[in-house]
């Protein structure tokens, strides 16, 4: 929403969470700071054990930070118990009451808050419509499908109109097709309600598809925060480049610098142009990252291409992956979109050249 887009709903400030004490404390969050804007679909993305759930639990109030603050619209929420926070959670397991109907499940939180019956009934009707479950209002939740249970869990969590909805891997129990459907559904719900969503996933594709912004986490730290495109196109470091999408990593030496661009000399002696983040010096050993779809196969003698051999070709329907061995010894993958009109002229075992566009490569610290 214009004008309000920069207001922070939640601000995590220097939050540390250490479990246990004595010899082997576990640092689950290591000084995490991240602002989450009002009305945004914000995703915490990272591998298992990186601290995503811990951070959600601290926001929900199920646990407390060892140090640091969590602000909600500028106010420290530490003194508020979970039920007094304008925050609700959707769990992976849904946690519905199986002996209750869909409508009773949705009403449950409102009844606990002591809302008047007429208001609760009206709100339940509104929520049933929002998640398109009007037809199943009086069905027990033990008698509906996984996808429908997911909708009920969402309706129940949204019913008390929280300012922030926390979603802990809510789609992971669904099969692939249903998950894709629910991704679109969740985006719609977030858009229609205007509630700030904080979504946890370890699935990078899901994060890229759904989020306004993503925080990439590893080992208790936030490595990068940005819009999906920003993170995909300009990863802050090797972990992010490896975790989000697919990447080729090439060792190189900085052969020349010019503002935000550099010439990188690869092991094969070929020099390529690459984007250069701040803080590098000439002659430094670096890594060049290239996405497989940003490289092109050309004839082996093509000027300024990297020479290599095709070791394997994998057909993937929409794309083909060419697995190559560069003359410098490194592995490299080129992805090419398939077209019904153009059969590939490149075959396994062939000598080829690899051309990397001048904006496709980026320098990372080694
Ligand atoms: P997953 O995707 O597997 O759920 P996660 O990113 O959500 O992982 P957390 O559950 O936040 O990770 O865990 C972060 C770290 O803290 C892990 O090393 C975990 O073992 C540890 N941890 C979490 N809860 C506790 C606890 N109650 N006591 C001790 N260690 C814990």
Automatic annotation (TrEMBL):
Coiled coil: none annotated. GO terms for molecular function: ABC-type putrescine transporter activity; ATP binding; ATP hydrolysis activity. It catalyses: ATP + H2O + polyamine-[polyamine-binding protein]Side 1 = ADP + phosphate + polyamineSide 2 + [polyamine-binding protein]Side 1. One of its GO terms (cellular component) is ATP-binding cassette (ABC) transporter complex. Residues 10-244 form the ABC transporter domain. The keyword ATP-binding applies. It is an enzyme of class 7 (translocase). Keywords: ATP-binding, Cell membrane, Membrane, Nucleotide-binding, Translocase, Transport. Pfam families: ABC_tran, TOBE_2. InterPro entries: AAA+_ATPase, ABC_SmlMolc_Importer, ABC_transporter-like_ATP-bd, ABC_transporter-like_CS, Mo/tungstate-bd_C_term_dom, NA-bd_OB-fold, P-loop_NTPase, PotA-like. Its EC number is 7.6.2.11. The keyword Transcription does not apply. Belongs to the ABC transporter superfamily. Spermidine/putrescine importer (TC 3.A.1.11.1) family. Part of the ABC transporter complex PotABCD involved in spermidine/putrescine import. Responsible for energy coupling to the transport system. The complex is composed of two ATP-binding proteins (PotA), two transmembrane proteins (PotB and PotC) and a solute-binding protein (PotD). NCBIfam families: potA. This is Spermidine/putrescine import ATP-binding protein PotA. The gene is potA.
